[in-house]
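Review this fold:
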Amino acid sequence: MTNRLMLLPFLVLFAALFRLTASAQRLDTSPISMSQDTLHLTLDSAENMFLRQNLSLLAQRYNIDAQKALIIQARLYANPNFTVEHGLYNTETKKFFPVGSTGETSAGLSQLIYLAGKRNKQIKIAKANARLSEYEFYDLLRTLKFTLRDDFYNIYYLQQSAKTYEEEIRSLQVVVNAFDEQKGKGYISEKEAIRIKAQLYSLKSEYKDLLEQIEDQQSEMRLVLQVKPVYIDPLVNTESVASLSPIKYPLATLLDSAYNRRSDLMIARANTDISKLNYNYQKALAVPDITLNVAYDQQGSYIKNYNAAGLGIDLPVFNRNQGNIKSAKAMIDFNTATQKSAEATVEEQVFRGVQKTLAADKLYQNIDASFSKDFQRLMHEVLINYQKRNITMLDFLDFYDSYKQNTLQLNTIQYSRIKAFEELNFVTGTNFFN
């Protein structure tokens, strides 16, 4: 009878673990149970959806169209000006709007002629602004695409971590339920039951924080994709990710791509070009324009039916556009310095990106591929030894916690590695590693 009583707690635990195995087969394996629909996406399909639906990109495209329309406006010539004047009241004949020999009508036609190539300079500035808007579009595209890809992989690896939490919570919950059934019968130590419950509550708290983190990433990705509230399930080609190599491209190739493809660097160069064009335009504005005109006057001049031709020009005595010219010259220096700073930043970012990628890949490659599988196999052996009373419950929990920490660390290492590759794509302006 005594031996049976001693074996009873372990029979209870064995039954609990048996129910754990059965319930694990019935439970949903998705990391999070969501009420909304699930959208399963590969990276390519996510990028295609992003290009079609993102409203920020759409708005920037409209801005490009608006800037191109200004090129049309810059090509237009100034409109001619026509004036006509007729006498209102003749004080001698006492008639309103007199006509004929007693009336007076005058008319004039004038045309503004731009000098110093102002029109061509305006066209060049408008074209440069249109190119700048295109570079801004590509820079927005580059930034949003990086956000999308980073969220895609971050969500995936966070989901893998969530599965680990679910597995451990599910295991401990079944054991706690079994302990609760035997509460007050003296088979299970109260201290041991409290210890397991404390561990379970701690795991649930950590799991909740992880779910919040996943939801934050989900929200950001939904905004980038411009989709209604759905749960996004990233489908990652792990073999393709594992095959990425940071030594595939030399540093010189990456730097050359960054110098030629980085849209933010193109923006800096475009601003420098625009400031130079504006300087030339401001100097041209110092040259006054000519107004050509022809006029007719019925009888208001020294002869009847007076005809005349003339021209008008401002005399640059006081305003020679000195302030705008000086400001434009200063903007050249400002944008030139900004461009050089951007070039130095690009070079450093590429160099640092290569360093980070090499370090992250080295850490990943040093991980024993069978380590995780060995841990899972050992977990089974630990369970058997626990059933045979070769180890205590606390030893079992400690090993299970080690398994959790190992899995979380592996997921973090893998995410850090793929993020390093994505950052290298971002700083070079090219999807070298895809």
